[in-house]
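TL;DR need structure tokens for one chain.
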Amino acid sequence: MRIDRIRITSLASLHGVQPAVDFAGPILGHAGLVAITGPTGSGKSTLLDGLSLAIFGCTPRLARDTDHLLSRDATEGGAEVVFTLDDGSQWIASWSAHRSRKQLDGAVQAPTHQIARAGDGGIAASGAKEVKAWVEQHVRLTFDQFRGVMLLAQFDFARFLAADDKDRSLLLEKLTGTDLYAKLSAAAFEQSKAAQERVQQHQTVLAGLQPLTPEERGAIEAAIASGIITASAAEAAWSAAQAVVAWWRERRRLQDDQSQRQLAASAAASAWQQAEAQRQRLAAAESALQLQAELARVDGSRQHAAKAQLQLATCTDTQRLSAADLQRREQELA
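>> reply
TL;DR here they are.
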């Protein structure tokens, strides 16, 4: 995170709207190191308070007791900080508060705290809880980490200088956040101690173990070799038994198949015998069909003969009539 601009309005000794401190501007933008100097009461710490207040809603000097931050002659005040995150996005953090009824003797009301985009002014977070969650997610610093890593308050530095070696070490751990490493170091020491104790226990057990004599070792190796031979023989016998079982299973299957085929043959023979009467009727029907064809042929011959006889009779009648007519004509001529 990079701080680009700080603006203070009526906080502590900085009365009224103060000029913005533009760290990204043409004057301070190219400075590698910036010193904030001035006499006591000129607002050096207040400027840093405004920085912390706008982003975290509290200050290293007063924590979250911000009622006394407003200037005594002001009914409202606040701080605004423009900053850029590591991804290049620019944001505006603002904190403001006012006295009740806009009167100097009024109590300081609940402050307004929010984070907005610098480009379009869109609100990203509003309220103490939302802003705290947003800052921890995007800035990736809590207030305690910020005050210990980026902002060392005056009173903490004074305590650091006046403290003895032990207190200075504890304060340095608190300010820099290295108390975690002290805890990790203690935990690592305890783990190392426990591991050494386990190693000592294993060494004690190993010391109580006696190596075998050559005779004992030879006897054990012979027993192992005998066991291997026995196991190999058992495996071979098992394979042979499996083959016999497989043969018997196949034989049983073939016997069952043969029995089924014999039953099927018997059923077929019985069905053939039962169909004998039907076969005889079929043979008779086939003979009848042959006789029916011969009978049809005879009927056809009979019809043909009858037709021929009819034609013969017709011809005879015609001939008789013709003879009679001839005789009549002859008589007429005579």
